[in-house]
Design brief:
The chain is α/β, with parallel strands linked by helices and 326 residues long. The protein is built from twelve helices and 14 strands. This is Alpha-ketoacid dehydrogenase subunit beta.
């Protein structure tokens, strides 16, 4: 075993390094990913070690970056594109949904586009406008895209490599508030499937389901609830498209209650699809309606107000109490 304790940021860096070493067709592209090593230093040292032809500093043009990646993928490369911040992805949205997501179907399966679009996302870092968005539902809605988000260092290391190996385009959301959280990474482990949910904490009274930045919050909520005698199970979904409904259903059939937590607005969020699908699948098992905890249906506020906007421990525990009260 090769187990090392590292931050999520370091795990992503090591994962990219491993991919570059393993496959000469892997390229990294983005704004400031080369000499600077990325604004969060996720690509630090990679251009120095692999050269400017494989770790490419691009112009500030997200549509051009993704469009170029599409062309490279058509020529047999595996581009890993970095969008510097979540709110900057929208100039590239057209390329992602009209080209990247649809080329495989348009070509009747003859063309594959193995492109990974890395997006640091979410709030709680005190950033300015356009730097704290959670747009995952916009991409999960688009057929032809895989959408995933790790919550810890081990998943960051393994899920990014699995995304790069995928022949389908993957939108890889990185929870920026968790970049500095540390955890053990076994670089010789056999990882779970990219789209398999993981039980992060066993429980029997209620299930909390989350992904990315909210998994840690749900674990904290479960620990707090345990002090009051409540047994809370936490499921790390890991993937927003496809969603492991079988794994989540197994948990809900055991606990008979579900609360879905994400940073993104509740209105038409990923939690809405989960609530609808689990209600369909588990109607005769549920003892309470599926509840959702998330951001408000409003533009992301200035940094001094983001603690009021983002789900916190109290809002999650309130949902747990409301569910258990039925």
């Amino acid at each position: 075993m090769a187990v090392e304790k590292m931050s999520v940021a370091k795990a992503l860096n090591e994962s990219l390094r491993k991919a570059l070493e393993t496959d000469p067709k892997v390229l990294i592209m983005g704004e400031d990913v080369g000499k600077l090593g990325g604004v969060f230093r996720i690509t630090d040292g990679l251009q120095k070690d692999f050269g400017e032809d494989r770790v490419i500093d691009t112009p500030l043009a997200e549509s051009g970056i993704v469009g170029t990646a599409v062309g490279l993928a058509l020529r047999g490369y595996r581009p890993v594109v970095e969008i510097q911040f979540d709110g900057f992805v929208f100039p590239a949205y057209d390329q992602i949904v009209t080209q990247l997501a649809k080329m495989h179907a348009r070509a009747l399966g003859k063309v594959k586009l193995p492109v990974v679009v890395r997006i640091p996302y979410g709030g709680a870092i005190g950033a300015v406008e356009h730097h704290s968005e959670s747009p995952e539902a916009l991409f999960a809605h688009v057929a032809g895209l895989k959408v995933v988000s790790p919550s810890n260092a081990s998943d960051a290391y393994w899920m990014l490599q699995q995304a790069i190996l995928s022949d389908d385009p993957v939108i890889f959301f990185e929870p920026k508030r968790r970049y500095w959280d540390k955890g053990e990474v076994d670089t010789e482990a056999i990882p779970d499937s990219l789209h398999t949910a993981r039980t992060a904490r066993e429980g029997s009274d209620i299930t909390l389901a989350a992904y990315g930045p909210m998994v840690k919050l749900c674990l904290e909520a479960a620990a707090a609830a345990a002090e009051e005698g409540k047994s809370v199970e936490v499921v790390d979904l890991r993937s927003m498209s496809p969603i492991d409904f079988d794994g989540l259903q197994a948990s809900v059939e055991k606990t008979r209650r579900l609360v879905v937590v994400h940073e993104a607005p509740v209105f038409l969020g990923v939690g809405s699809e989960i609530a609808a699908r689990i209600t369909e699948r588990c109607f005769y098992h549920l003892e309470a309606p599926v509840l959702r905890v998330g951001g408000f249906h409003a533009p992301y506020p200035p940094a001094r107000l983001e603690e009021e906007y983002l789900p916190g421990l109290d809002r999650v525990l309130d949902a747990v109490d409301r569910s258990l009260a039925y």
